[in-house]
Design a protein that fits this description.
This protein is mainly beta. It folds into two domains: about 160 residues, PK beta-barrel domain-like (M1 Pyruvate Kinase, Domain 3, Beta Barrel); about 80 residues, no CATH class. About 10% of the residues lie in helices and about 40% in strands. It contains three helices and 18 strands. The protein is globular. It starts with a strand and ends with a strand.
Amino acid sequence: MRVHSLFLYPVKSLAGIPVSSFVMDDFGPQGDRRWMIVDSERQFVTQRNFPELARVSTAIEQDCVTVSVPGEGAFRLQATDTGVRVRVWQDWVDAFVGAEDASAALSRFCGTALQFVFMPDATFRRVDAGRVSEVRRVSFADGFPFLVTNLASLEELNSRLPAPVEMRRFRPNIVVEGAEPWQEDDWRQIDIGQQSFSLVKPCSRCVMTTVDPDTGVKDAALQPLRTLGQYRRTDDGVIFGMNAIHQSPGRISVGDPVNNRITE
C-alpha cells in the first residue's frame, strides 16, 4: 500500500487543494481548516447549507490563503485583531474576524451575510474525548485532524452507482491505494513513511457527499449517499473512510509506503 493522493482544505467547506506532500503540526495537516465561515449568529456554515460553496476555490501562496469567489475575484484572507466566539458543531471557540473584503464578496455570492474567521494558535479545541483519551487538539475540522480513505473502496462504490463519483466528494486528507475494498474498516494503527497514525472512528457521511464539487449542485437522486446507505450503514452512521490522529509532527508525501500495524 502507498499514499495515492493528499489534500488540504484551508477553509472549512470550500474547495480543497491536492498537494504532493504536507507538514503536520499540532493541529494536524499544517494550515488545514484554520479558516471557517460563520453566519450572523456566529454559527458555522458549510456546503450542507450552501452547496455553491464548492465552487469557491482556495490556494496557499507564501503561507497566505487566497479564495476565489465566482463573479467577485480573488481575495487574500487576513485575520484582524477583532476577537469573536464562534460555534462549530457543539463547540464554542475563540477566533479572529477576517478582513471585510473577502467576507463581503462571499456574502454577495451566497446571498446572505457571512464572515470568514480564523482559529489562532492560542485556541484549543479538543478532539472528541469519547474517542481519544489523549488531550489532543483539532482545528475547525468536523472532529478529528485527518480523514483517511481507500481508493479501492471508492472503486467498489462506483461499480454500484449509475454514474461514478470522484474522491473529492468525500474530502479526505489522505487517500491510500493498494488495499482491498473496505479494508480500512479494520485499521487501527498505520504507518505512513516514518509517521504513525491512530484510526479512531469511522467517518459518518452526510448530504455533502451529494454535492458536485465542480458545479456546487446537489444530486437530485442523493447519490452516492443513497447507495452507500444500502450497505454501509452502521451504529456510527453511513460510513466511508476513517478519522485519524497523528502521533508526532512530521511530513508525509504522495508515494509514501503505508503499513497496517493493528486490526480488530
